[in-house]
Amino acid sequence: MIVAGCDVGALTAKAAVMKDDTLLGYELIRSRAQSVQSATQVMTLLLDKLGLSFDDIDYCVGTGYGRAMVPFADDNVSEISCHGRGANWLVPTIKTIIDVGGQDSKAIYVDAKGFVKDFRMSTKCAAGTGRALELMAESLGVKIDEVGPLSLSASEPVIFQQPCCIFTEIEVRHEVFNGRDSADIAAGINDYIARRILNMARNLGIRKDVGMTGGIAKNIGVIKCVEQALGIDLVVFPEDPQLIGAIGAAVFAADKARKLAQ
Amino acid sequence: MNSLKGSRNLIYAGCDLGIISAKAAIIDNSNVLAFEVLPYKGHPRQAASQVMDRALAKAGLYLEQIAYCVATGFGKKAVPYADELVGDLICHHRAIREINNNVRTVIDVGGQSFAAFNIDNNGLVSETAVTDKCAAGTGRFIEIMADVLEIPVEEMGSLSLVSADPAAITSQCVILAESEVISLINDGYDRFDICAGVAASVSGRIISLVRRVDVNEEVAFIGGVAKNALVVTNLERKLGLKFANLSGIDPQVVGVLGAALVARDERRGSK
Questions:
Q1: Closest CB from A131, A166, A173 relative to B135
Q2: CB A42 within 8 A of CB A57
Q3: Mean pLDDT of chain A
Q4: What percent of chain A has pLDDT over 70?
Q5: B176 Cα to chain A: minimum distance (Å)
Q6: Which listed site, A173, A232, B9, B252, has its alpha carbon 20 to 30 Å from B269?
């Protein structure tokens, strides 16, 4: 039985394919103008890589911002549920998931099976999101995946006080012009992002084990800031944390396929 | 003005270094000699020097001839030639008192600034509402949407005047609204309608700020966003009034005029 999950986010589209509770592979692309294009492109890439075709998939679940626009999906499930299921499938002891996506961030509390018990979500402000990190990385003149490693050599991190990332982005630029060490600026950016995310997560309550998912979880600097602020170690996922929504969608797809087979 | 008789006609200057534009004003004892506005993306310190050089060139003067200079705005600390730093509110208040004494409410919306205040009948500031927490409603919001729409920011207000059906932009956050605008473009919405939607969004934010002070006439609308004609007409309609006459002074340079006037006051203040 082959199942798939497709997570169409605001900035990236992800696909995962599973066979009998084993992950066969996954793929990630930058989102296209239309969700339909993003979904089709990422899944085609993955299936080609695996030597499979769309007909081989018994069941597919769409998730993410564009979940209703996945043309080959049999069903769709919210990304909150998928992150819960995906994280639990990889790390069964997880209780709290902090998912930071391209344009929103969420804190999710799950039960022992990975089903959502409660959550918080940022809906009005995108300060603690991937897009905010991306803008600030641009202002610093580095790639988004360089901000984390760069920050590790900081000696005196910049403290960014403005709540709004649009103004902080310009402050980053001004720090660059002022000749501040780029590692110190990078550490300041990570500290800023972590504070914005934790504002929301603290509102939900933090129950161990805690893991971070989404693209920002690949930033070692943000992870360290969050660990320091919470005084705990975060769970290390055995797979790419940006793919956990797509993996969760595939886990839901497996459930549905099993039910249909009965 | 007898006290000034016999005194030399000194030159005073102001520099308002905002987050996306630098402004300079040069005045003497009785006249405005030059204004200059310079949008910038680069080094704030360089922008401050450049805008003053241009204003000085217009007035046919040299930096050394300035008797006193006041800097204001977000980046005032980076103005290398300033003799004194003064807050935005003081500068705006000072300029408005000079331009139009009947103004009782001032709305200032710039690249980053987002403030409203009242002036009482004695000419003093009575109530203020300021927020610098969020870029929604500011000039930076309009600038980012202009980039996405590939329309010069100065044209955002005029283009939108012809829209019969403004697009709805529901997100306040710049980042979320930016992706909404990208979706609207992808969905084939008319650019003029999107511009009008941007103006409506900005106006909505400004109204919620203004409601935190008393809306007493006359009302002056200043800052770079006051140059967006559609935001102006939107606000006038929502508030049910016409904005005060600023005697032809560019609303974006009111702050810097105030800085120059404060500089003059400081020098004369010892009198």
A1: A166
A2: no
A3: 94
A4: 100
A5: 7
A6: B252
